[in-house]
User: Fold this.
Amino acid sequence: MNTGQALLTDLYQLTMMQAYRDRGMDRTAVFELFVRQLLPQRNFLIFAGLEQALDFLEGLRFADAELNWLRGSGQLRPEFVDSLADFRFTGDVDAIAEGTPFFPDEPVLRVVAPLPEAQLVETRLMNLLQFQSVVASKAARCVLAAPGRLLVDFGLRRAHGAEAGMLSARAAFIAGFAGTSAVEAGMRWGIPTYGTMAHSFVQAHDSELEAFEHFARAFPQGSTLLIDTYDTEAAATALVPLAHRLARDGVRVRAVRLDSGDLGEHAFKVRRILDEGGLNQVLIFASGNLDEWKLRDLTAARAPIDGFGVGTRVNTSADMPYLDCAYKLQEYAGVPRRKRSEGKATWPGRKQVYRRLDAQGRPAGDTLTLVDDVQPGEPLLQPVMRGGRRLAPAPTLDQVRAHTAAQLERLPAAIRGLDAAAPYPVDVAPALHALAEAVDRRIDAAGRG
Amino acid sequence: MNTGQALLTDLYQLTMMQAYRDRGMDRTAVFELFVRQLLPQRNFLIFAGLEQALDFLEGLRFADAELNWLRGSGQLRPEFVDSLADFRFTGDVDAIAEGTPFFPDEPVLRVVAPLPEAQLVETRLMNLLQFQSVVASKAARCVLAAPGRLLVDFGLRRAHGAEAGMLSARAAFIAGFAGTSAVEAGMRWGIPTYGTMAHSFVQAHDSELEAFEHFARAFPQGSTLLIDTYDTEAAATALVPLAHRLARDGVRVRAVRLDSGDLGEHAFKVRRILDEGGLNQVLIFASGNLDEWKLRDLTAARAPIDGFGVGTRVNTSADMPYLDCAYKLQEYAGVPRRKRSEGKATWPGRKQVYRRLDAQGRPAGDTLTLVDDVQPGEPLLQPVMRGGRRLAPAPTLDQVRAHTAAQLERLPAAIRGLDAAAPYPVDVAPALHALAEAVDRRIDAAGRG
Assistant:
């Protein structure tokens, strides 16, 4: 994913770059990425996608074919396009760690770079970071809603294209899912891959039991059989003698999958059928339009379901398929900047987020302030890139996943819950208020002439 | 996009393939892709993504690195993985044309191929077709809601990854958008690219008017200036003398952009300021959280807005970020098949959709039936691939766009509307009812033993 990303940008980034170049405006710019607000039903967000963002910045080049196309487009001057051949991202990046909870107005990533560089990368940075963060946040809610259950990402087929399928598998794994059905995500990142069987396998056989036997014998070490194609309980009942017969041949049926109807009701009935048939060790796996609320309901009802395939609604973050995020200029040439558009005003300057912990080590509130205004608590933004190069190798996905689990574990109970809670407190320090007022006075004094 | 797609599949497709191979189950399978139901606020869907689906099928190969990874994963038998080296898709595909409206239960694509081939391709086919269709459908509603206005896709930054940004730009263009801000989509498909300027450009200057002048002079043939960074009307007022001064140097300000506040109210005020200042030819462009309903309201209010940048809500199809679609086995080895899971039963057999036209040439209702049961009307599914090869070159995007426009034009008025209408009639022919009953009797007779 390191090449061919230079044109994953909005045209205006390139036209602005040309205009900056015309005026020699290549001094240092500071941009910060943040989310403006949360939907009421979300109490926190989880930051994800940093490694892809850093890959993008390190690898950013214009290929010859891209330069040729830009020249032919007629939208940019040829000598400006020529200059892009040497383009490299040479800036600095500070960011919060992947898997860390964050809240509105808090910068999660800061880019400090010559203005044209910092401008060009806006589109793809937002594209990578907002999507993984929105999915990681949704997936984390699923994990919290179904403690101790195995959750597997099943969503590639209805993800928004291939990259969405890959990045959502990664984000869900970070958030605590056990793995994914997407084979490519297994190859790319070593995420454990899981699979069951499809209705088509059953339908392609003239007998459902024959289908079960064929599939089980193909994977004697353990298979998951889909039992809802025609009649769930009838299939479970018929499976009992088959599973015993297969066991005598060393063939193990590991689980059955339910995919339709009232999953909880079917699970209770199927569990009883399996237990009464001596198949206590056969697990029950369920899927079908699941999200955090359905997982909570099934868990609360103590439905005997050991694992869940969770797909579309998490991969598309169906109730909130995007974050109201922004990447805004906060300083240029040493001067703090501020946008004041209605409802979209921003806090100026280079900022830091301090997270205060209570006596039990749980986050008690954050302070948003300027980088040089040290406050109590843990500073969340840390250096990750200097001069266009990563400062350290990427952590492993398992490390990120463990960090996320620890962070979720210590979130206040109300914030962890699925229902809307009182907002997590994010205070704006006096120093930042003072700077914003100073910037306003400067803008008003400069006027617009 | 032709290589490296073989592992964009669910693990179970590969495990089922291995099990099919064990049993020599490689006879002809018929799968159809369809949508189960629509959300109440959608009256029609637009089919899109066929060309990417056919590219995928034609180019499908397992690369050596993919085969090596599969061998190492331990989830498949080595000799089965070896056999994948020669895998090619050799099947037939029939489909409705891109840009054609469709409705629940209607097959939009039929794959007829040896069972293992037809099974493997399920995941990526759905991934490509459902996403472009969901975006094309949403974008078409925007086009219908704002007749005569220029609509431009601005959504790459909050699309679900890079491919989502590209495919949604394509889908929106098919649906009638004028173009996109995504440069890569311009290079890949020749979609016209549009750009304005960002708040950061204004903020990076000490004076807003200086920013306007710098940008305008960089693009003397015409530029769009963003005027809401501090105070929209004040910026418009200050622009008047600047624009006249620039015009004397041959520098043209083509448009201004509004991006915050009440867009309609600002547009009326700004239009008056520009007109009174003699800038009648300067257009007004607006953006910011737009969707079909906001476009309809602004259009109904006769807001003097000439064009709209429409982003996130269309690129993510925010109110319906996925379709309840399925790719189901309808026939194997010459025998019609049917899934009967609760709430998810399917119509068996190879099917065709006939669209009846009224005296004015408008669709009056569809008939869903078997391919050999000819009905009045136009058969929508047409052959597009035989033996794994396309039957004809892909139509140009302009051709697809013109087809879509003509199809939207002739849809019944209530179906074209944004509000929920009486469902478009889709009848199931007696022949299909009869086949479904026959399949049910066969399944019941076979039992599950």
Notes: Chain A has a mean pLDDT of 95. DSSP finds 17 helices and 19 strands in chain A. Residues 122-145 of chain A form the longest helix (24 residues).
